[in-house]
Specification:
This is TauD/TfdA-like domain-containing protein. The protein has about 400 residues and is an alpha+beta fold. It has helices at about 35-50, 60-70, 85, 140-145, 205-210, 215-220, 230-235, 320-330, 390-395; strands spanning about 5, 25, 50-55, 95-100, 100-115, 120-125, 145, 165-175, 180-185, 190-195, 200-205, 220-225, 270, 270-275, 280-285, 290-295, 315, 340, 350, 355-360, 370-375. Bound molecules: fe (ii) ion (FE2).
Length: about 400
């Protein structure tokens, strides 16, 4: 049977006109026995639609790793390194637990597990806004189902190792319970009904497309310098109520207190990344890990009228940089632009990690067990920024 696709089922909160390209469910594939032609088609679909859902998938960790690696065949290491995440206790990603025999696949979720893929016991903790945001939803509101996004991000070490092209997320156990309401708590009144334990996605392409012209101009001219060991650096810092920014209160770990680092492993990446299949630009910045922003001057011959930073800029003030990034990213997490995936067991979602942002949502109790296998690989090549033609078009 040829590979078929159908649009993802959107929740009533989503604006269908903004999801004509994003997301497809793929039908009629046996993931365990993909022919090279079928894989090529899946790869094309992934970069075209940015997220693909396969229902009723059966994948061992070895098979999940092999499938993930097929998108970047010369990569071998997990996105954060094959040994690093668990040992780096000061990292905010300390909850990641690798499958012992396949370190490129991580066990994520919530609750206590025993005898799972070679792990005698595993204590999983669903990351939630409670331990990350500066303010939290009150226990009374939480009891009534109010919750928040945790942390909008792409999966990437952003130091030493290059951002993965693709992430695969495989649901083994999904908690059952009533829908929650994700509150933004940023004065807009925005809120989003959300299935329990959902993963929320937004398109980086939409994020770029809906920017007003002066900010599109900044987006195509900007490069982000990420902090060394960013997840340790941001460890003590509290986040904004939308999970899309950090509060600038000077709490970052000082650079001389970080694990040893060297300048040559620092990552400076374009703020917009070019889709390898569609050529579209995706605004892809990890807002919490960013440390500095470089903006190139306007190219010669481009009108300066209304332009921001026409002569370029090097923004080193964290608050100024974060405020600018927030202005550019917040419109794209509006409730109508978010796809919250309502997980069913054996769902495999693969997403173009260089083209979308995502976050877990909600808070789970200790008895609400959620078990997922996640895999992504430090890429073999850096993301490609806008072409000179793109810069001239949007600057
Ligand atoms: Fe993630």
């Amino acid at each position: 049977m040829p590979i078929q696709t159908v649009p993802l089922t959107l929740p009533p909160s989503a604006d269908p006109s903004k999801f004509t390209v994003f997301g497809r469910e793929v039908i009629g594939v046996d993931l365990e026995n993909l022919s090279p032609a079928e894989f090529a088609e899946i790869e094309r679909l992934l970069y075209t639609h940015d997220a693909l859902l396969f229902r009723n998938a059966n994948l061992s960790p070895e098979q999940q790793y092999a499938f993930t690696r097929a998108f970047d065949p010369t990569s071998e290491s997990y996105a954060h390194g094959n040994q690093k995440t668990e040992s780096t206790k000061k990292s905010i990603l300390h909850y990641l637990k690798m499958i012992p025999r396949v370190p490129q696949v991580q066990l994520v979720g919530n609750g206590t597990l025993s005898d799972h893929e070679g792990l005698e016991t595993a204590e999983l903790k669903h990351p939630s806004h409670r331990t990350f945001h500066k303010t939290v939803v009150s226990p009374e509101d939480e009891a009534r189902g109010a919750t928040r996004f945790c942390r909008w991000h792409m999966d990437a070490a952003l130091y030493d190792l290059l951002p993965p092209k693709v992430t695969t997320l495989y649901a083994l156990r999904v908690p059952q319970g009533p829908q929650q309401v994700c509150r933004y708590d940023d004065g807009t009144g925005d809120e989003l009904p959300i299935p329990l334990g959902a993963t929320a996605f937004v398109s980086g392409r939409t994020m770029f497309d809906i920017l007003p012209r002066p900010l599109q101009s900044v987006a195509v001219r900007a490069r982000v310098r990420y902090a060394p060991h960013p997840y340790v650096w941001m460890g003590p810092v509290a986040a904004h109520s939308t999970g899309l920014a950090l509060e600038s209160e000077g709490k970052e770990v000082s650079l001389d207190q970080l694990p040893p680092w060297t300048e040559d492993k620092i990552q400076v990446l374009p703020a917009t990344w070019k889709n390898p299949v569609t050529g579209a630009l995706h605004f892809q910045v990890h807002p919490c890990a960013a440390q500095e922003l470089f903006v190139d001057p306007l190219p010669e011959g481009v009108s300066r009228e209304g332009a921001l930073y026409p002569d370029g800029a090097h923004i080193t003030d964290l608050k100024e940089m974060r405020d600018l990034l927030y202005k550019m990213q917040r419109p794209a997490i509006a409730p109508s632009l978010v796809y919250p995936h309502d997980w069913k067991e054996k769902d495999l979602v693969i997403f173009h990690n260089r083209g979308v942002m995502h976050t877990v949502v909600g808070a789970l109790g200790p008895d609400q067990v959620r078990v997922f296998h996640q895999s992504n690989l430090a890429a073999s090549s850096a993301p490609v920024g806008p072409t000179l033609e793109d810069v001239r078009k949007y600057a």
